[in-house]
């Protein structure tokens, strides 16, 4: 790949890169020439993702809810590949219960995994991103950064928070030539949403009917935006939240 979208010589770290949307983004970033560190808790999924990527890929076992683990994850990346240019803050989860049924610990677990961890990862990566001189942060919001659902109050709060946190990174780190942008996926077919289809009656049909493209997204649908936001093509794009949703957010 040449020119604007070429990632040759750059190093990416993708949290939750061992499956779903994270792996879709990791594959595209790797395909554009970057070295990629996959971070996740599950060693088998980590190994399979590295095997799928091939050369210039490695993995690290990391729990984004553990500050020491996050620090070790960043160190493993810089030790292995000599720096860090692209941080993809993707790891996330959901607990689908309305407010009246959601325990406080469950609320805290979702906020911690989806939002507190973004702070921890960004903070730990900052010295390396600054040293890069061309740092990129990509966060993952959701349609629930814009809309909400009664069955996912903590998730909606965390994903709304991700967008505002991303704007704070963008404005705070612009002087270091670090761009930070959020991607807002529509409904994408992954382990996360396979569980949602079991939990929420009629979800599959509702998503297809509500999405102008008339289908669920697949992880590879996130590859193009990942390369754009990781590359020089987006050097004057920062603080945005970009839907990749088959038109979901455009339709009333
Ligand atoms: P998956 O369940 O397929 O992937 C979640 C990933 O996060 C896994 O790789 C998992 O790795 C990792 N992860 C979860 N908790 C932790 C943790 N504590 N520490 C480290 N890694 C962790 O879901 P998706 O690919 O669908 O989700 C990826 C992101 O996209 C999430 O932020 C989600 O909210 C967001 N999103 C998804 C949408 C969809 O329709 N699928 C829509 C909008 C946003 P491991 O198994 O090894 O722990």
Defining traits:
binds NADPH dihydro-nicotinamide-adenine-dinucleotide phosphate, 7-stranded parallel beta sheet, 45% helix, single chain, 252 residues, Rossmann fold, 7 strands
Structural category:
alpha/beta
Mean pLDDT, as a whole number? 97
In the sheet with the most strands, the strands line up as 3-2-1-4-5-6-7
Q: Termini distance?
A: 38 Å
Shape descriptor: globular
Order of helices and strands: EHEHEHEHEHEHHHE
How would you explain this protein's 3D organization?
By secondary structure, the protein is an alpha/beta fold. The protein has one domain (2-190, 219-243): NAD(P)-binding Rossmann-like Domain (Rossmann fold), CATH 3.40.50. Helices cover 45% and strands 14% of the residues. It has 8 helices and 7 strands. The chain has helices spanning 20-31, 43-53, 67-81, 104-132, 153-173, 191-199, 203-210, 223-230; strands spanning 11-15, 35-40, 57-61, 86-89, 136-140, 179-185, 241-244. A 7-stranded parallel β-sheet has the order 3-2-1-4-5-6-7, sandwiched between helices. Helix 1 links the parallel strand 1 and strand 2. The mean pLDDT is 97. Bound molecules: NADPH dihydro-nicotinamide-adenine-dinucleotide phosphate. NADPH dihydro-nicotinamide-adenine-dinucleotide phosphate is lined by residues 15-16, 18-22, 40-42, 45, 62-65, 90-93, 113, 140, 142, 185, 187-188, 190-193.
């Amino acid at each position: 790949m040449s020119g604007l979208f070429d990632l040759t010589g750059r190093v990416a770290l993708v949290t939750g890169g061992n499956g779903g949307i994270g792996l879709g983004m990791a594959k595209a970033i790797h395909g554009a020439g970057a070295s990629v560190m996959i971070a996740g808790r599950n060693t088998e999924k980590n190994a399979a993702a590295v095997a799928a990527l091939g050369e210039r890929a490695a993995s690290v076992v990391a729990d984004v809810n553990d500050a020491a683990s996050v620090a070790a994850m960043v160190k493993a990346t810089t030790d292995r590949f000599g720096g860090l240019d692209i941080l993809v803050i993707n790891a996330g989860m959901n607990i689908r219960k309305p407010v009246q049924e959601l325990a406080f610990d469950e609320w805290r677990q979702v906020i911690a995994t989806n939002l507190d961890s973004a702070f921890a990862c960004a903070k730990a990566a900052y010295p390396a991103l600054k040293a890069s001189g061309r740092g990129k942060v990509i966060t993952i919001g959701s349609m629930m950064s814009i809309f909400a659902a009664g069955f996912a109050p903590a998730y909606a709060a965390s994903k709304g928070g991700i967008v505002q946190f991303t704007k704070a990174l963008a404005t705070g780190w612009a002087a270091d030539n670090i761009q930070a942008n959020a991607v807002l996926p529509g409904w994408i077919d992954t382990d996360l949403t396979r569980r949602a289809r079991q939990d929420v009656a009629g979800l599959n049909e509702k998503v297809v009917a509500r999405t102008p493209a008339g289908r669920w997204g697949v992880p590879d649908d996130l590859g193009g935006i990942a390369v754009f936001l990781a590359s020089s093509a987006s050097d004057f794009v920062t603080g945005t939240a970009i839907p990749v949703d088959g038109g979901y957010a455009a339709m009333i």
